[in-house]
Amino acid sequence: MDYKDEKLPPSNYAVLRWFGFDQFVPETAVTSHWVSPKVFLAIRSLLALYSTIVIWTDIGFDAYHGKFTGFFAFFTNLTFIGLHAYLITSTVHHIRYLRNKNVDSFLKQPAFLNYLYVYLYCTVITNNIVTPVVFWGILARYLGPISTMQSWLNASVHGASFFLMIFDVIFNRMKVPIRMILFVFFTVVLYMFLTFIVHASAGYWVYPFLDWKQGPITAAYYFAVAVIVVLAFFIQVLIHYVRDLIARKTARSHQNTVSDSQDMTKLETNHSNVV
């Protein structure tokens, strides 16, 4: 499949260039190595629809049971909101790409929105590995009896969320700038500070394993989460690399198309010179 892959203009700020924000190629967000843009949109629309059902059901369930005041204190909820925001934003851009046959929806919007999109993508693909691992590895043992609705919501935000994310990763062609690990990591650090504020103001720990009264094991939990975040990010870097490698090896990559075209042009040029 052949795409134009028009890049963003270089940023005027060295720090943004260093992190790789302006390396974003908008067309890679709405096209795939494996399927046509229309099929990819159909897949992405289903993912966005499911995330919409889950997020609003979760909000409604918590509001009905008087628990909404603490909704935004939970890392799981913030992570799922990020995933939902990414899927909806991508779907809107995807529709405009197919309708207008260009990526002007990206290129003509303020640059900082594209940079935020890159940041959102990097946090979403990382944190939707972190959330299931931490929940099922550490937090699940603290769960008491729950209703059928709560079971479905738990499975959705701590399990299905991973599959929503990984399907999008497999089908898109986006890259992950390595230095974005710093933004991703410090986002989690900022969340830790939020939990301290919640504890100081409301008197409870958002997650039991954060409670300092548990002794040295708490430090181990904090360190384990930090390690999981870093590992999750680089697992995603590897997944993106393998995805693109398979695409190149199976001649599905746009880079192969461009390379083959260039090689054919050179061959034709050399042939005409000989003649």
Write up this protein.
By secondary structure, this protein is mainly alpha-helical. The protein has one domain (14-274). It is built from 9 helices and no strands. The model is unreliable at 256-275 (pLDDT under 50).
Short descriptors:
275 residues; mainly alpha; 0% strand; globular; ADTRP_AIG1; transmembrane helix; membrane; transmembrane
How is this structure best summarized?
This protein is mostly helical. The chain contains 9 helices and no strands. The model is unreliable at 256-275 (pLDDT under 50).
Profile the largest sheet: none
Taking all Cα atoms into account, the compactness measure Rg is 22 Å
The total tally of domains equals: 1
Say how many strands there are: 0
| Mean model confidence by pLDDT | 91
Q: How much beta, percentage-wise?
A: under 5%
Overall geometry: globular
Distance between the termini: 32 Å
Helix content: over 70%
The total count of helices amounts to 9
Tell me the structural class: mainly alpha
**Unreliable residue stretches:** 256-275
Order of helices and strands: HHHHHHHHH
Q: How would the blueprint of this fold be written?
A:
Blueprint: H1 14-19, H2 37-64, H3 75-100, H4 104-107, H5 111-139, H6 148-171, H7 181-202, H8 216-249, H9 254-274
Helix pairs in contact: 2-3, 2-6, 3-5, 3-6, 5-6, 5-7, 5-8, 7-8
